[in-house]
Amino acid sequence: VKENGKDDYMLHTGDMDPIALNKLTLQHDLRKALQNDEFLLYYQPQYDLASGQIVGMEALVRWKHPEKGLIPPGDFIPAAEESGIIVPLGDWVIEEACRQNKAWQDEGIPRIPVSVNLSIRQFSQRNLKGKVADILRSTGLDSRYLELEITESMTMDVDRASQCLKELTELGLNFSIDDFGTGYSSFHYLKNLPIARLKIDRSFVRDIQQDPNDAAIVSAIIAMAHNLQLQVIAEGVETEHQVQFLRSHRCDEMQGYYGSPPLGGEEIGKLLREKLNR
Ligand code: C2E
Ligand code: CA
Ligand code: CA
Ligand code: CA
């Protein structure tokens, strides 16, 4: 891909193999999509298991493609990460989530934090703290209401990550470990990173009812989190049985289709307003 001035990108594809071409086209389209403002955020509510109240929400990006319609993140985040577009895209996600959350707060909707997924590439930026500080300042959102989600990654340098997280926690925001249990260095992370919350991966929650091993793993993660003074939330909760199980094991929160799927800004705005009027 050759850059032609600021806003123009030209593809010189020659006779590349079709798979490589496809990837390049996608990366090219992602850049254009960012310029054309084609991304939007959905929000999935997070519920307190004891009270049933909405106590948080996760921002999940979608690409509103002019021809192909709404594209889920799984179809473009990997290419965005590989090409580095995830950095400006991720900046946009943080800013949009903060702006939206502040707008809801200004309406008088009870204040809840918004969680934003952070990619490893965003982490490697030197000025991430400065960027986040700028976004909080310009949107006016109190840092208490922004949470960042990171995943365990084999390639992540824990010392560097720890340094980066410490700097960011100085701003007053919280971190959670996403997809907990699926990575390679869970305990190392837990011991060395300043985090507030674990998110139990959906793959463990899914078969709680059928698989005693999964049930044992989930209850062990909850107990361990609490012993470490961490909050714990279960992901991908879909059934009443899962809710009962999690509640009886004192899991703090849940997120999943049982509560609500991710919703567009307008729809979740409505849900939050109903909560206000209750
Ligand atoms: P994630 O962070 O683990 O997000 C949860 C995913 O599980 C979401 O998929 C959500 O729609 C889905 N989900 C929620 N509840 C249920 C349930 O009860 N059952 C099932 N089967 N699925 C459920 P989504 O929105 O397609 O996002 C997929 C992944 O894309 C996310 O996984 C996250 O890793 C990534 N992603 C999304 N937004 C961003 C972003 O802004 N930045 C980055 N770096 N990654 C993002
Ligand atoms: Ca997440
Ligand atoms: Ca997750
Ligand atoms: Ca995941």
TrEMBL record:
Q: Coverage of the whole protein, first to last residue? A: 323 to 600 of 615
- Where is the EAL domain positioned along the sequence? 23-276
Q: Which organism is it from?
A: Cohnella suwonensis
* UniProt-recorded name of the protein: Bifunctional diguanylate cyclase/phosphodiesterase
Protein origin, superkingdom: Bacteria
